[in-house]
Amino acid sequence: MQDGLRIDGERLCRRIAELGQVGAIAGGGVARLALTDEDRAGRDLVVGWMREMGLAVTVDALGNVVGVRRGREDLAPVMMGSHIDTVRTGGRYDGNLGVLGGLEVLATLDDAGIVTRRPLAVAFFTNEEGSRFQPDMMGSLAFVGELPLEKALATAGIDGATVGAELARIGYAGPAPVGGKKGKVHAYVELHVEQGPVLEAEGFTIGAVEGVQGISWSEFTLTGQSNHAGTTPMRLRHDAGLVAARITTFARQVATEMGGHQVATVGLLTQFPNLVNVVANRVVMTVDLRNTDETLLKEAERRVFAFAEGAAKEEGVGLSRRTLARFEPVAFDAALVGRVEAIARELGHEVRRLPSGAGHDAQILASVCPACMVFVPSAKGVSHNVEEYTSPSDIQAGGDVLLRLVRELAG
Amino acid sequence: MQDGLRIDGERLCRRIAELGQVGAIAGGGVARLALTDEDRAGRDLVVGWMREMGLAVTVDALGNVVGVRRGREDLAPVMMGSHIDTVRTGGRYDGNLGVLGGLEVLATLDDAGIVTRRPLAVAFFTNEEGSRFQPDMMGSLAFVGELPLEKALATAGIDGATVGAELARIGYAGPAPVGGKKGKVHAYVELHVEQGPVLEAEGFTIGAVEGVQGISWSEFTLTGQSNHAGTTPMRLRHDAGLVAARITTFARQVATEMGGHQVATVGLLTQFPNLVNVVANRVVMTVDLRNTDETLLKEAERRVFAFAEGAAKEEGVGLSRRTLARFEPVAFDAALVGRVEAIARELGHEVRRLPSGAGHDAQILASVCPACMVFVPSAKGVSHNVEEYTSPSDIQAGGDVLLRLVRELAG
User: How many beta-carbon contacts under 8 Å exist across A and B?
Assistant: First the structure.
């Protein structure tokens, strides 16, 4: 595998630009919400490329599309892929890079006349973003058997239309049964933009993604007492705003003290009655905790929840908490992560291990086969935004790592 | 003065209840915004009582009303008073108690056949609350010469009407020149409900008000960077919400460490974009600092402002600050405060010195004559609310202190 084969980065960038014209919006972004006319047009373009390349294309009953390139033996394929649906004001790279990068790997092998032992597949999964239909990662969840097809098809979107009806309408309610069982995919590799600032900020070209962070979203409602800011001595206050502030600073402290991949964010904080001279009688706030390690995530939760209760009690403020979301971390296959790192080094790229802070189809596929992800930098960490950008040289680097890794895996 | 003369608390409470029927609203409160029809009706009722008692009533060009009871000598009068305008959902006691308490003192002296050496006056000042027209304490400010009459008359209210036009409309643009010069009032004593929880919470009946707190209102705008809560490591964040929280907790710390009469409140805090999983890129917040001592208030400002700048810098967050309001503290006449305290003790009441956290006409009058205030408890510290309540026994106690003090002052 030291033959120095490289993908054609320019061809890949041209395809990214061409797909980016489908559902294009002002500022260079795209809007291809799942199962809309724009999504259909994007699907048609990519499926057309798959057919041109001679792939065997199957569309399953949930609209997941898989293009397979035959191998020398009839084995479970090595799969690449991601998604091509976008958020309402999305970029050109999120998802699309993984799908078109996979096609570029196959085209490169075609050009070099190389046939791998195992088949190679490129997949795009329906509704990864979850902007129109909940849950996100719907296609891959059904693909691995974690979401019943009937439930997925019956899902109504933000506009009232159901997944089933929209699939039929755009012609992507395919004949194939949904998804695979364990063993039907040999391994899954997803090339993706980081969507965060770490690689760029630290000067790395390749991220070897160790896993996807577990997520804990809690909402706290603090109930204090509204009082006059001038006439109420400090010791007689029940200030919901103060307790909220103490929780916010403590959450940061926990993340700092725990270090590693622990992050903590109080993104939402709404104070009532929100007047200059009235002590706050109510605050609704959220705490977003994430870690790649479930034990550590639980520890962060325990510390923040305990502190919040103590701080509320100390101030004579009522506290209630509800869980808005809770997902356990997913660890990618250690051997694959190691290979991503090693290959990137072999190719002369600066590489670092890092977790993914966002969810991806790869974490779903990880339940049925060894899976991993290759990250390339997002300029300024921006994603889900028309300004999303990854440079051609980084795309070349990511595609080369993907090429070499799947060649290894496919033999 | 040890003759044991007491006011008729029942008569005073009846008058409070009767005035409370004018502009009555659901829940036992009143709405008599300055210079509305309801304010006129309230004024007419009180002026009627003044005339029944034989007082010489003057109405000045800003609608301030003064009723004078002759003394044995033609000297500057000892004045009692307050205001009878209310906020939109006000209580029956705020302001009204000081005016009707003053009338009750005169009625008690009438009943006892006592004529003081100095004249006694009862005043109510126009638009103390400032709910309809800014600034608050308008009538007393003009009375002492700190606000030009023309400016006051030209002031447009929240409904567009001007003070001058409304005074004319309700018949309270009086013929008398506005206000007094130094020396025209011998002393001013204002009986008022505390509007805070201290007296009730600590079991005191009478508050000897040492002064009115200085007020410092600052608005901070913090400008951070919006980032993904999952993908952005803690060290790369510029979290405006975290800086806001640190300022909030520090403001509390300053108030606690300084002790005394220092209070600090972050009542208003608005976070953007205010989403669970997005680091806040902007916060607008206020810090309300008050102290009875200008040097200490400046010290609190210095500490909070310096901390805010440091915290913002540390997080890489921009900070701008503007002053929304700044008033220096007013100290009431030390001798008068001492007499309030002593008289309350002589009458067998639990008394404590305390500052006023809210503004009052007395602080304005303090610039032209010795002034002081007598506080009685507000149930649960509630004011500017239909649930405002002060018990008949506390009203009796406050009226008795007022009676004895003005008899001393009037000789």
Answer: 198
- Is residue B2's pLDDT more than 70? no
Q: What DSSP element (H or E) covers B377?
A: none
How close is the nearest chain B Cα to the Cα of A224, in Å? Answer: 12
- In 3D space, the residue among B70, B49, B47, B71 whose CA is nearest the CA of residue B59 turns out to be B47
Same domain, A165 and A263: no
Check pLDDT > 60 for residue A1: no
pLDDT per position as a tens digit, A9-48: 999 999 999 999 999 999 999 999 999 999 999 999 999 9
In a domain, A89, yes or no: yes
Judgement on whether residues B276 and B366 belong to the same structural domain of the protein: no
Which of B246, B277, B384 to mutate to probe the A interface, most A CBs <10 Å? B277
Contacts of A309-313 with CB under 8 Å at 24 or more apart are: A311/A243, A311/A246, A311/A247, A311/A250, A312/A222, A312/A243
Q: Are residues A320 and A171 in the same domain?
A: no
Tell me what pLDDT residue B230 has.
Answer: 87
Residue-range definition of the domain harbouring residue B23: 9-212+330-410
CATH of the domain at B269: 3.30.70.360
**B16 lies in the same domain as B59:** yes
Partners of A318 in the β-ladder: A223
Binary contact (B233, A263; C-beta < 8 A): yes
The answer to whether residues B176 and B33 belong to one domain is yes
pLDDT at B183: 61
A-chain residues near B357 (CB < 8 A): 228-232
